[in-house]
Amino acid sequence: MALKSLLHTLLLPPGGPLLLAIAGAWLVMRHGAGRARRTGIALLCIGLASLWLLATPLLAGVLTRAAQRSPALDLSHPVQAQAIVILGGEGKRPTAPEYAGEPATDQRMLERVTYAAYVARRTGLPIAVSGTQAEASAMRASLARDFGLVTRWAEDRSRDTFENAEFSAALLRPLGIDRIVLVTDADHEWRAVQEFTSAGFTVVPAPVGLDVPSEIELRSFIPSPSALLRSSAALYELLGDLARRTFAVLHLRRHGR
For 131-170, what is each residue's pLDDT tens digit? Predict the structure, then answer.
């Protein structure tokens, strides 16, 4: 997990483009002329240009919509599921002074919990949470404190989406629960659905934070911190799904299928 976190920081924006620009600047300073200097100038320009573009709302929107492949949950029709599963993620606060030291969620995780509570009230389905111990505790506390809802099941060992699916299956499927509503960020939903399907669940996607296209205007080309975060999150999911499919193909080839 430490290696995964390090690669995330180094390869995705802003880390990746900045490292590219730094490498280019180093080559330019070390070499006064020749191919190495030209390579350095190219790397410097590519790194800075890619950082600028990834921080623009226009490109962030394109990448976000590419990652968000699951449609919004339609609650106007009966939901064919037995439980709601909320996935944890970065954004837990093990102790929150404003809540007398109880666990709390940040804005991103709270959005998942809020939507899951809305779905639970509309459908009457019981809730399960899945994540690390800190994430599960924060989600359970928020559901009880802020929405008056009891968490029926808590899976608190998983550190990534694959483990979310495997450990949730070990918890729920022996109880006869194999049809779930899966609540997570819209960027993450598609990859999460694939993992939970592979673990034996029939999944009803319930993505949170779906992007709504806006008109292209001047500020669409002006970099912003929020747009850079959106680009980074979308690229993480797109690359993560590519890695998942690559490993699946390699697994099939290794076993002669």
Answer: 999 999 999 999 999 999 999 999 999 999 999 999 999 9
Helix (H, G, I), strand (E, B) or coil at 74: coil
- 115's enclosing H/E stretch is helix 107-123
Q: Strand ranges (DSSP E) for the chain?
A: 83-87, 92-96, 102-105, 127-130, 151-155, 179-185, 202-208
User: Considering all CA atoms of the chain, what is the largest pairwise distance in Å, rounded to the nearest integer?
Assistant: 70
Question: Which CA distances in Å does 77 have to 123, 126, 189?
Answer: 10, 18, 21
Question: Of 159, 141, 171, nearest to 88 (Cα)?
Answer: 159
Assigned token pair, 152: 């029926």
Say which amino acid occupies 202.
T
Residue type (1 letter), 101: G
Model's pTM, two decimal places? Answer: 0.89
Tell me whether the omega of the peptide bond preceding residue 14 falls within 30 degrees of 0, making it cis.
yes
- Domains belonging to the chain, first-starting first, are 83-208 (3.40.50.620)
CA–chain centroid gap for 75, Å, is 23
**Contact by Cβ (8 Å): 129, 139:** yes
